[in-house]
Amino acid sequence: MPSLAAGLDRHPGIWRGSELARTACPGIATGFAALDAELPGGGWPCGSLTEILPQHEGIGELRILGPALARLAAQGKCIAWIAPPHLPYAPALAAAGIGLERILIVKTAKDGDSLWAAEQALRSAACGGVLAWPRDIRFPQLRRLQLAAEDGRCLAVLFRPTQAAHEPSPAVLRIALATSAGGLALSILKRRGAPLSRPVFLPAAPPAAGNNPFSGFETHVDSHTPAAAAAGSVPARLALA
User: Fold this and answer.
1) What CATH number does residue 192 fall under?
2) For residues 73 and 131, what is the distance between their CA atoms, to the nearest angstrom?
């Protein structure tokens, strides 16, 4: 019996209620030490859904993903953007170390097409990361995306409105974003492990530009530039009809 108990204690799917869960594979470092310290695996989870619920568009939801996306691009992995509300600012992506040749933007006409595209991108094993902005999604559809993320073993992030926090979700990580003292307050609504009662605070001012390749990333990428106005800044190879 003691050996059985010891084996269970080492199982990655079992953890004590007072600690973070163990993971079979390490997460992708977020680039923010305070956030990494509160996430099982020490970063963004791979092979499972993450939901980010911003207080409003452009608050910094892409800034917090910047370092991880740059790391994936540097590894030669593609990053799919499924139906983003605005076209990302290509010069800022390049300046942040995210190779434009690794970005795939999928434009869709309706929600069903967006969900189908996200599921195919997740299952393809061709993407290191999939970012999606579903406008209307139900639990069965979320479950399908969770299973697809498990198959693809990639970073899977859904951006949803704050009211979605009151709805059930199979996502293993849910983070609400709000402004606080000029910076960002990240409330971890759900994670595998002990709950976190306090928000994680990220200051607005990044380190000196010489030490931080993501300086200005939030300002330009999380902008409210309409797709039509931004189109001239995005190379044609970035967009897929």
Assistant:
1) 3.40.50.300
2) 14
